[in-house]
Amino acid sequence: MSNPVALKASTGSRPKNAFTSNSRIPLDYCDGPTQRMYAASSFALLQACKIYYYFQMTQSDYAAGFFGFILWLLLDVLFISTIHYLRIPWLELPALRLIIAFLTLTIFNFVLFTMREVPFGTLAQSSTSILWTFVPSFSRREASYHADQDAHLLGRHTVLITPYSSAVMNPEDQCFCIPVANLPVIEQPEIPIIFNGSDPYAIEYTITSFETGTTTTHKATGPFKESSSVFKKARSGQDGVSVYTLQATLPGAYKLQKLLDKEGVDIRFFKGKEVFVVGCPEARIDHHKVSLDRCAGKGDVDVPIVVQGLPPWRVTYKRQSKLGTQELLIEEEPAGYSSPFLKGWSPPAKQDYSWAKQHEMNLSAHLGLGTPGDYSFQVTKIKDGCGNVIDLQGLVSRGLREPEIRHVKVRSRPLVTMKCDPRKPIKIVTLGDSPKAKIDLDIKNGEGPFHVGFVYQKNDIEQPEPMKDVVIPKGQESAFITANRPGLYTLAHIKDDHCEGEVQLPRDCTVSVATLPTVEISTTTIEDQCVGAIGVSIAATFTGEGPWKVCYDVYRNDQLDRANVCQGSDKPRLTLKMTPELSGAFKYKFKSVSDKNYKAIKINLPPVFQNIHPQPSASFTEKQSGIRACKGSTKRLGVQLVGNGPWDIRYQVIHKGQSRVFTENNIVSKTTNITLPAFENEGTYSVDLESVTDRSNGCTKALSVSDVVIEVSNGPPTVSFQCEAPVEFPEGGSVDIPIHLTGGAPWYLTYGIEGQDSYSAVKSDSRNALVTVSKAGTYELRSVKDSFCKGNVVEQAYKCVVVQSERPTMNLKIDSIRFRGGPRGDVPEDEISPSEKISREGDHFVLPPVCQDADRSLEFRLTGKEPFELRYKTVFKPAKGGKDVVTERKEVAYHSTMRLPVITDQPGTVFYHLETLSDSIYKDVKVQHEKHAVVFRHVIRTPPKALIHESTKKQQFCKNEVAGVTDKIAIKIEDGAGPYTLAIEVRILDVPEKVYMHDVVPNKHGIYEWTLPAKFADVGVYGVSVLRVSDSNGCSSSNDDKHSSVEFEILDTPTIAPLRSVRDGCVGDKIEFSLQGESPPFKVYYSLDKSKHESTLDSHSNKFSYLATKPGVLRISRVCQTIGRKQCCTQPPEELSAQIWDLPTAKIAGGSNLITNLRDGDRAEIEVTFEGEAPFSFGYVRREAHFDPKQPDHVGGHAEKILEKKKLSGIHDKKYSFFAAAEGTFELTFIRDKHCQVGREQ
C-alpha cells in the first residue's frame, strides 16, 4: 500500500525536552528509527510467513483452515503485545487503537483461512489499508506513499489477443438415458461440451432416431446463459475453459455439425463423434399385489420380473425373511443380442441402430421351498448395457415411486405323533354307560383346525378299519383320539387348512380293558407282656393298577367309633397297625378298594375283631415353661392319666443338681393335681414324671414326657416412693412421682390419696417408674406384685406429699423498677445529665431519653421458682422514619433479680412489650399490670453530625488564574439540638492547629460558614477537618472519615509545542505535538476550518497526534489538564496552524476493470483522467495478463510479471490517453498534483 507524500519537505527540529522516551530498549543502545525499522520488518516477515502458509494449505480441508486461523491469531496477538511492551518511540499506541488493530488482524485471519472464496489480493489490500490508519508515520521524509492509494489510483485496462478456440463434446464418453413413462421423476440428461478460448454463440447438431433411423437437424442461437432451456452455460473453469450442456429430449444418436462464437468465427471440434442417448432401464415385478402361498417341501417357486431398456441388464433385488435380508443379482440379455458396448461387436455395412432400441424381457427370481417362513421380493436397482443405473429403492424412499413388493408365504406342514408308551397300554374302564379312553396326540407346526385320520384294528387277523377324521379346532391346546374298544389304533394322515402333513413315530397305540381291583387281608394280634393284647396288625394285598386305596369303619363296643377311614399305598401290599389308646372290643369292617382305573369298588370281606387292653400313661396338663413362683411358696400341677385305673404316679423335683422323689397313690380320676413342696431356695426347679402304675392289672410304665420348669424368685417384690420433699406442680398441670421397685418385671401396683378409699392401678416394666398425678394431697402406696408373687410396701417410703405451686410474678411498681447505667466513658461528665426517673403515660411506662449508644438496663424483682425466662418483643421506630422493626427476644435470670438490656444502638423510639414469664414450674405466664399489657417506651436521641459540605470539598485553583484566596468552609450540621460546639483542625503546610467554636447556630439549611484563618499563596495542598461536634442535650460524635475534611490545592498549567515546524500537509499526514504538565491525561482543543474538536490523550501519553482525514486549516486553540474536578487550561504563546491539502486521484478506464479483446494488428486506446490541482504527473505499468477463474470478469493481478514501466509529467489537462497494441494489463503506480502525491514512483 502507499502513503501520500507532501511536495515540500519539512524543516526544523523537535522542541527540547518536549518528549521524554520511556522505551524499554535504551535509545543510546538502539535509536528510535532503528527500533521502528526492526518492528516493521518483523511485522512484514510475520505476514509473509502467514501468506506462504495460506498458499501451502489452499487444497486442505476446513480443519486445516481453522487450525491456521487459531495459530496465526495467537502469533499476531503475541507480536502486538511485544510491541506494546517494548514501548518503541512513536509506536506506543493507545489502548483503543491496540484493540482496533487486534480486531482488524482477527478479521483478516478469519477471512483468509475460513472464507476461501475471497480473493487474496483484494483481502490483503483492504486489510492493509485499514491497518495502516493505526500505524503512525515515522516522519514526513519516510512516508513516500499513502496507505489508501486504492481510493486514488483506480481502474485497470487489460488488452488480450484472442487465440483460436476449440470444443469437445462428451469428453468422458458417457452414455445417457431418457426416462420412460414409468420414471417421470428422473431429470432429462444433459450432454456436456467443453469450450476452450471462447464462448459459443450458435450451435447446430443432429439426432438420429434408434427406432426409425431418420436424422433431424436442430439449431440454437445465443447468448447462452445458465437459465437457457436447451443449450446453457454450466460453469466457468480456469484458463478460459468453460462448460456448456446440451439437453437431450429424445433417444437417439447426437452429433455436432457446427459451432460459432460471438464474432461468427468457427469453433473447432471433432465432427465424427456420436453421443448415444437411450431409454432408461426399468424393472417391475408382475402381479406384485398378489401374494403367493406355498407349502414347505421340495421344489421352488418363481417370482416374475419384467425388465426394459438396453441389454444386457444387471438387476439387483433383495429378499427379506426372518433370517435377514439378502441382496441378490440377475444378469441376463436376449439370445443373440450384440451392441458396440459388448465384446465381439461387428459394425454392419449399413448404419443400423436397432441394437439401441428399447428391449423387453421376462426374468425370474427363484425361491426354494425347503425353509418355511414369510418372504418378500423387491427390485432395488437396475443397470443397462451402457452403464445407466436407476436406483429404484432410492426413488421409493423419497416417495417418488410406489414400492413393488411381492410376498411369498411358505407354510410349515403339520406333524403328528401319538403320546403312547408301547410298554404301558392304555386301559379302558368297563364301568359306566360308554366306556372309553383318550389317546393324546402331539401336533406340531401348521395352523388349526387340523384333520387327523386314523384306522382301528381289533387283532392281527382282522383288517384295519378306517375311522372318521378327528377335527382339532383352532386354538385348542389338547388333541386326542377317543378309543371305545380294545385293539390297535394307528394314525393315517393329518392336514390343516393349507397343507397336507406328515405322521411321525410313534404312530400307533394299543388299547386294552382294565381289570377291577381286589384286596385280600390277613391279621396278627399285637401282644404286650404285662397287659396282653394291645392291638392288631392287618396285612392287605391288592390286585389291579396302582396306586391303591382301601377304606374301612371302626367300631368300639358295638358302637361306630370312626367312619370311612382310608389308607393309600403305591405298592400292592399294605400293613395297618391298629393300637387304640382306649380298651374295649374293637371291630374293623372294610368297605371299598380303589386303583388307578376304578374308584370305590365295594368289597365283601369278613370283619376283624380284637379286644384291646391299653397301656397306662401320664402327662402334665400345664405348659412346660414360663411358670414362676416366690421363695417359700408352693405350686399345684395338673396331670392327665391313661388306662383303666386306679393309678399310682411317681415324680421328682430337681434343683441345682439335687433331686427329691415324690409319689401320689390310688388316683381314681383321669385328671388330678399334684402339690409341690414349698420352694426353699431361689432358682430354677424341674418337675419330671418318672412312671405310672395301673392298679387294675399291676402294670407299670416308665414315662418320657417333657418336664415342667419353674422359676423361683429370691423374695417378694417391694415398692417405695422416691420423694424426700413435697413435690410441686403447676395449676391445671400434673407432676411425675418417682417410684422404686424390686423383684422381677413386670410389676402391678396400686396407690391412692390418704383418707380416700379409691385407688389407681398401674403396670410398670422398669424398676424406676413414674406415677403421674394432677391433684394435691398425700399419696400412699397400697400394694405391689410382680411376675412371681405378691410383695410388700416399704413402710418408711410409702407416702409422698404433692402440693400446687404459686405462679411466678414480676414487681411492676415504679418505685421497685430500676433504670440503671451511666454516661459513656468518652463523653465528659458535664455534657450528659439525663433524668433516671421512670414515669407513666396512659398504659405505657416511659423511660428517660438517652443518647445513642448509652449504656442502660432495666432491673426487675421476680417471685417464683428460678430459673426465670422472660419473653418479650421490641418494636423499633427509626427516628427518620421507615418500616418498624419487630424482634422477638428472651432474657434468663437464675435469681430473683432480672436485668433487661436497653437497646440504644440506633436513634429512634423503642417499645418493649413484656409478654410471658416462666419459671421451673410454670411455663409462659402472661405478664400484666393492672390487667393491662406491660409496655415500656424509650426514646434514643440522635447524636449530631458535622461534615464538610460537598460544595467546598477538594477545591482546586489554577496558578495562572488565582494567586491566593480567602474562602469560607461550609459545614453541614445535622441532627441533635443546637446550639452546637465544634472542634476543628486546620493543617497549614502539614502543621496542625486545633480551634474550638462554641454556641454555633447553623442557618435554616443546616449550613454553618466558617471563615478560613489563612490565605493560599503557593502551589500545594491545604486541609481543614471537623474533629468533634456536641449539642445542647449532651450528645456528641467524632469524625474520623474523609467526609469531615476538605483540601485545597493550587495546580500548575500545561504547555504545548510542535515536534517539528509544519505549515502545510496532505490528507493522511500525521501532525504531532509535545505536551508538558503535572500529570496526564491532557485535553487538546483544536479546529479544522470552522469545525471545532477536542481530543483527550491517554494517561500514559504526552504526545498529541492529528491524522489529517480531510482538507482544511488546522488550528490549536488551547490545551488543558484535569486533576480531580478542576481543569487548568493554557493557550499557545503563538498560533499553531497548518494547511491540509486533499489528495489527487487518477482513474484508468474510468476507474473500472476494462477488458479489450484484439485481433492481431489492432490497437486499444488507454485513457487516464485526473482529479486535483495541475500540473499532474503519473506512472503506470503493463503486467502480464492473467485470467482469474474465480472472477471470470477479472483479468490481471499484482503477482503477475511486469512487462513495461513508464512515467509521464507536466500534464495540465484533466484527461490523458495513449494507444497500446501489446497484450497486458495496464495499472497506475502513482499520481502527483501541485501539492500531494499518492503512490510510489517505480
From TrEMBL:
Domain named Nucleoporin POM152 immunoglobulin-like: residues: 515-616, 857-934
Domain Nucleoporin POM152 N-terminal transmembrane, chain residue ranges per copy: 31-114
Annotated Nucleoporin POM152 Ig-like domain residues: 418-509, 717-797
Assigned GO CC terms: nuclear pore transmembrane ring
Any single biological process term in GO: nuclear pore organization
Keyword Membrane set for record: yes
Pfam families, alphabetized: Ig-like_POM152, Ig-like_Pom152_1, Ig-like_Pom152_9, Ig_Pom152, TMD_POM152
Stretches assigned to the Nucleoporin POM152 first Ig-like domain: 166-277
GO molecular function, one term: structural constituent of nuclear pore
InterPro entries tied to this protein: Ig-like_POM152, Ig-like_POM152_1st, Ig-like_POM152_9th, Ig_POM152, Pom152, TMD_POM152
Keywords: Membrane, Transmembrane, Transmembrane helix
Transmembrane parts of this sequence: 62-83, 95-115
Domain Nucleoporin POM152 ninth Ig-like as annotated: residue spans: 1054-1122
PANTHER family to which the protein is assigned, alphabetical: NUCLEOPORIN POM152
Protein name according to UniProt: Nucleoporin Pom152
Species of provenance: Podila minutissima
